[in-house]
Amino acid sequence: MRLSERAKGITPSATLAVATKAAELKRAGVNVIGFGAGEPDFRTPAHIIAATKAALDGGHTGYAKPSCGIPAAKEAVCEKFRRENGLTYSPSQVIVTLGGKEALALAFAALLDPGDEVLLPVPYWVSFPEQIQFFGGKVVPIVPKGDDLRLTPDQIAAAVTNRTRIFVFNSPSNPGGFAYNAAETKAIAAALADHDLIVFSDEMYDQLRYGDRREHFSFARISDAWYEKTITFNATSKTHAMTGWRLGYAAGPTNIIKAMSNVQSHTTSGAVHFAQYGLIEALTGDQAHVAEMHAAFEKRGAHMARRLNELKGVRCIEPSGAFYCFPDVREAFKPLGVSDGAGFCEVMLEKAHVALVPGDAFGMDTHIRMSFATGMEQIDTGIDRMAEVLGRK
Ligand code: PLP
User: Fold this and answer.
1) Is the domain covering 5-43+288-390 a CATH 1.20.140.10 domain?
2) Segment 191-210, tens digit of pLDDT
3) CA-CA distance, 118 to 47, in Å (whole number)?
């Protein structure tokens, strides 16, 4: 059976590959500690579940109308952006989607023509290069120079050309675990100012920022001009522990949102109708769970980074956002007899029974990603096991 060239270009998710191998070991009776998960280890708060159950009982089981989001859900998204991001959008500028992933895919579908260039900072979320290529775009990666992994304006200025159609900005970063502050965000925008392009601001982790980078600053807030050229993406997945609900949303220029909605109306018909009542509750109801999860993640992230820095050949920056540590492990390659992050992760899975994600999947084979969306005890046990293989400094 012949597959399309487009489908053949897509590689399977590396994060899932690690999870599969870890699951195999688990089935064989091995106690594997998993650091691969890109989702909170908390349950969806009860009031969100209750609102959704009420919607089911209330008969909201037909097609969502319109497919790009029921009016009350779009209003809730507008309220969230106003309250938490200082951004004013009207419902016609909003689309509700099947997770943040669908929102991003629809936007690439709406904007890319064959060969259009997309500037993609490294390390990047796994699905970005795949989505860009699937919709005919050309990925132009920008590799950071410093240990902190943040790009400098001069690097952005050097990469942008008149073929650049989209600049992808993901702060806080998955997998980097770092966040840009307001000044850095504005400096990056200044480096792009002379170009006719659209910014995709992926703000999935806007409520998960730590230490002196606690304050989130949305790209669209920089100025009216940038507001006009930015699509802001978010989801209830990470902030409200709702990954399996598949609820995302985006806001931006009306004509782009309209084009995205058209594509959506012929592909998925949008987010699940009754689940959208869960989104409304998540975005406008009691927010106590957000602070609780934030406090837990902040403590775990600092602890994980501190403990990772005890290990020989491992250097880790304290995370300032999301729920990932992204340590540089290249100095451990030679002692382990491996040549990249994938080899490192293989040894760790086999010898330490610890599941990690190789940085190769995110464009940096010198690093690995470890999620701290897991309990403190798991973090300590997993790092103790890694220490037995790597040694301590
Ligand atoms: N963007 C980033 C940076 C992410 O980390 C994720 C999820 O892992 C997504 C988008 C997609 O989120 P969702 O699960 O809501 O589709």
Assistant:
1) no
2) 999 899 999 999 999 999 99
3) 40
